[in-house]
Every structure is written in C-alpha cells, then in structure tokens.
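Please check the following.

. . .
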Amino acid sequence: MSLLLCENVSLGYDSKVVLSDLSFSVNSGDYLCIVGENGSGKSTLMKTILGLKMPLSGKISMGEGLKQNEIGYLPQQTVIQRDFPASVWEIVLSGCLNKSGLSPFYSKENKKRAKENMEKMNITSLSKRCYRELSGGQQQRVLLARALCATEKMLLLDEPVSGLDPKVTAEMYSLIYDLNKQGITIVMISHDIQATVKYASHILHIDDDIFFGTKEEYINSVKGRLFLNTKEGEE
C-alpha cells in the first residue's frame, strides 16, 4: 500500500470548491513536488493531508502505519512567526510534542532525537540562541529540525526556500535531498521549476487539467513543456 493515497478528492472552503477530483499516490522514498499557479489549492491540499481541513469529498488515507500526527510539516513562515521569542532548542524540541502524548514533559528519547536532528541540520551551536535573532536560512534549518522530530517517514514542505538568497537556497535543497536519500519521503510545494526537475522523483501539477506522474513523464508531456518554458521565460 502507498504511504499516502489521495482518491477523487475535492477541496475548498465553505463548500466553495478550489480543487476537484484529485487522485495521486506517494510511495515510501518518493520525492514529490507539487507545482501550479497561486490559488490552485496546493497549500489547502497540504493542510488536508495533515488533517487540519476536511476534504469536501473523496478520501485521503495513509499506509505503512503512518499517522497524520507523525508527519513532519514545515509551513510557509509569516512575519510574526519569524519574530518568535523562543530559543532554538525549545523550538526544535517542540517538534516532539505529538510523540509525547498526554505527558507535559519531554522524555530522554525526545531530547536525544532533538539533539540528533540539530546535528543533521548543523545548528547545534545555535542551541541557546533566540530564534528571532537568526538569519532566514538558519531559521529554516531550525524549523526543518523541528519537523524531523515529528517524523521518521514523511516531510511536508510548503515553499521551504521562500525569501532565501541563492546560496542558502542551494544549501537547503541539498539538505532536503540528503534527507530523501536517507529514507525520508518528501512532499514539497515549489515555485522553483528548476529545482523541481532536478530533485523530484514525481510531479503533481495542479490546475484545471491535473497532471501526476514521474519527473521524466512530466518533462516529456505537453503540460510540462509548456510550464517549463513559461517559467524559464519569466526569469
């Protein structure tokens, strides 16, 4: 069974449909990039996968024992979130909350996991620093470490390089790609078509005519060629 299966799903707000009849699957180890124009329903889809919204119709199911609260999530940051007055350690450790159940305390295993993920993101030296004092790239590493504390299987990333300079963007993509090679399944919303065709194994293109398939199938499709040429012409 797929790690994530979306069957004939319609999404929207207050019964207003923004996306209809969506079907795709994600297998363990996949790197799925979701592309499409603004307002097409990409972020709404992520929130629905996480159980933060209910689909208007259709079904989203998990396989291999995966639960919604065991998915790591890195949302788009708001200005208020960037100014959050907590230490790096506190933020990363908070990613273990779902694993703590009803206990108000973090276990030794939680703290060990937080330390390991900080090491993976190379932010151990920032442990006592205040989050809002960090650079944009450092903040994203902190949030990625936090998301990793919640999962051993799947990460959902909503525009994880938004607002970062080219050097830091390349570093972030490299980190995410390494995590995928280590066995973490990636589902990422992206407007960066060059990174999409470089790193993704599969592509979901959301608009009036939905495409889902491998990267190679997308590149060779009429939709893929048109979208790639359009985005490259905008740069």
Observations:
- The chain has a mean pLDDT of 90.
